[in-house]
Amino acid sequence: MNVGVIGSGQVGQVLADGFLKHGHDVRRGSRDPSKLSAWKLAAGHRASTGTFAETAAFGALVVLAVKGGAAMEVVEACGQGLDGKVVIDPTNPIEEAAPVNGVLSFFTGPNDSLLERLQRRAPAARFVKAFSCVGSGLMVNPKLAGGPPTMFVCGNDPEAKRVVSGVLEQFGWSGEDCGTAEAARAIEPLCMLWCIPGFRHGDWAHAFKVLRP
Ligand SMILES: NC(=O)c1ccc[n+]([C@@H]2O[C@H](COP(=O)([O-])OP(=O)(O)OC[C@H]3O[C@@H](n4cnc5c(N)ncnc54)[C@H](OP(=O)(O)O)[C@@H]3O)[C@@H](O)[C@H]2O)c1
Hints:
Strand order of the largest sheet: 3-2-1-4-5-6
Radius of gyration: 16 Å
Largest sheet: 6 strands, parallel
Strand content: 15-25%
Order of helices and strands: EHEHEHEHEHEEHEHH
Bound molecules: NADP nicotinamide-adenine-dinucleotide phosphate
């Protein structure tokens, strides 16, 4: 599968490398693709780079690994490149402010989410929230006790969620489908919870798991 990974940060790097490792062709996008040339060289012949729009156009599956506060304008910059595409959305709506006693602030409220805003901005794209509630170092085939951890996902398009569920399985996760886009109101704040042990004790090596009888 051709995968477009929009994002020159840590999440873009880890997920792009994960897709390459699992046999996909990957284009990685930035406003300035030249800053990804070292990655492209190291990543090999199935890797390429491009602008946001070129990366969106390349992918059958697209990952939107950009700063939460810039995500709306990045979607805008993709033009029609996201139309019809499955778009994995790991973004979190984190405010430009220091955490308060280990707790991050969001620019969205409790009855709102970034995923819903993005879906409204690009109604023909098929957004699926995923990878938002774990650190980048654990996103691909994490080695944790107790079997595959849980990745909470949501989105309006059932087929898109099936595609993402396959990706999660390849990447060593158990997908937990929480329903439609509104469920992102509950999933995105898990980022705050996930970060608390990190900010308080330097403990960033953990993930969520749903347990059932
Ligand atoms: N880091 C983690 O462990 C982690 C874990 C879970 C979820 N997340 C979420 O995943 C997303 C990506 O995180 P990250 O740590 O990899 O990197 P990041 O620093 O949050 O985002 C980097 C990307 O955002 C783009 N960007 C920043 N400001 C922009 C602007 N004004 N206009 C257009 N694009 C802009 C950059 O574009 P250029 O390439 O053009 O510079 C770059 O591609 C975030 O929403 C974050 O909350 C992060």
